[in-house]
Amino acid sequence: MPIYEYRCKSCQQSFETLRSFSQKDEPTPCPECGVPTKTRLLSLTAATSHGESCGWDAGANACVRPG
User: Fold this and answer.
1) What is the pLDDT of residue 23?
2) Collapsed DSSP state (helix, strand, coil) of residue 4
3) For 43-58, how does the pLDDT look when each residue is reduced to its tens digit (9 = 90+)?
4) Rounded to whole angstroms, how far apart are CA atoms 4 and 19?
5) Distance set, CA 61 to CA 10, 21, 57 (Å)
6) 54 has which bridge partners?
7) Mean pLDDT over all residues of the chain?
8) Residue 17, strand partner residues
9) How far apart are the C-alpha atoms of 54 and 10, rounded to whole Å?
10) DSSP element (H, E) containing 15
11) Phi and psi angles of residue 8, each rounded to the nearest 5 degrees, phi first
């Protein structure tokens, strides 16, 4: 299950919660004030690679290996 990030409209507290895809848009209670909120935030993600590195060529819209 993914972790979603929300912001409470009542107290402006940001918080994360583990929810299924089908629950992502349902109200969830703010852990600070208890008011149900539906305001999801756009969260950043991190990615790692264990393979060979490459550089992104925006003009070619492709991964270009050095050398």
Assistant:
1) 92
2) strand
3) 766 666 666 666 766 6
4) 7
5) 43, 31, 6
6) none
7) 83
8) 4
9) 46
10) strand 14-18
11) -75, 130
